[in-house]
């Protein structure tokens, strides 16, 4: 292990300086004078109290590094905005970042370090499902509220523990059951599936197979691919000739190669193709070799390209994070974001903010933690807003899982245009667990 690198990650703190606090108080006074914020004195007293310490478990290295970098950028933007507008209950956020290397074992170590060394109030930010599954038991053992920004069914399944929440992004089961009717009705019913060979990919395999069957279709071939794979041609050769739809979802550093090799293998004589944007997150749609994707379809949670009916909330969010209308960094148009995932960090931080303020949380005592957890479990609806720019959502406190709209986009002229948006109810399912029955 590179201890020097680990130490540098440990020291990566986002602190609120005395000058920033004073600046914030001045802004509050001005707002109070205008009649927008009552009680400048109460604001000042709250701002002078201890920060809320949040541990950000980031995939800064390993196969999740592209996501981790944009998760970090989004998180820093949200923290800055929250702190600039009064913090959480008047208390500034102090963000402590640790790199888990996109590794389950290291993830568990990071959670323990947050709790015992950094003594944070909460941990959030984990994406890759195998890291979530590897880290969650430690969070439960240490009674550390753990807010993940993943997509696997691991939270909603009930297999984790009461300290784990996924309130800012939907799970794979919800995503696939909401879109299977459109796929079956518009693209075909004989589907070959290509997916990463770990929990996230297995969720796609299991839930889409059931969802397409419910539409009178069939997943005629399952093709698992190791997450660290860098060449894919031999997997495409396994796709049956009678396939009507190729369903693909791939993650990691080899995604561009994956899509290019799929084009080289099939050429113009290809089945319909429906992919999850995971296969092209952080990848420029104009990259050489991707031309064959024109006319294919992708799932998106939050459309990368600003649409004709773009909401004011999407505009606000893009500006705050520094993303242009094509989903790339304003300061470097070649730096493409992970737009359909990173919003979950933004929205999760605002859920944490609401839970702290509603529960009266002050410090990491068993009583305050219990009140916070029960406060999150009592949440039901999130309105589309600057805090929830991806759209309105419904939260199920029994499952610790949020449900939202999904988009199906078509590749046209090197960009993604939304052709269908699901209703929230399309992705809801009967709960198989109830975390509220577990003790705190």
Percent in helix: 25-40%
Regarding quaternary structure, what we see is single chain
Distance between the termini: 35 Å
Counting helices, strands and paired strands, the structural category is alpha/beta
What's the overall average pLDDT, rounded? 90
Alpha carbon gyration radius: 22 Å
CATH topology of the largest domain: Rossmann fold
The amount of beta strand, in percent, is 15-25%
Q: Output the strand order for the largest sheet.
A: 8-7-9-10-11-17-18
Q: In the CATH hierarchy, what is the class of the largest domain?
A: Alpha Beta
CATH architecture of the largest domain: 3-Layer(aba) Sandwich
Provide the low-confidence segments as ranges. Answer: 1-47
> Which of globular, elongated, flat, extended, rod-shaped describes the shape?
globular
- What's the β-strand tally? 18
User: What's the number of domains?
Assistant: 2
List the total number of helices: 13
Sheet with most strands: 7 strands, mixed
Instruction: Name the CATH superfamily classification of the largest domain.
Output: Response regulator
Structural write-up:
The chain contains 13 helices and 18 strands. It has 440 residues and is of the alpha/beta class. The chain folds into 2 domains: 3-170 and 341-403, Rossmann fold (3-Layer(aba) Sandwich); 172-305 and 405-427, 3-Layer(aba) Sandwich (Rossmann fold), CATH 3.40.50. The strands form 4 sheets. It has a 7-stranded mixed β-sheet, with helices on one face. It has a 6-stranded mixed β-sheet with strand order 1-3-2-4-5-6, with helices on both faces. The protein has a 3-stranded antiparallel β-sheet with strand order 14-15-16, with no helix packed on it. It starts with a helix and ends in a 19-residue tail after the last strand. Residues 1-47 have low confidence and may be disordered.
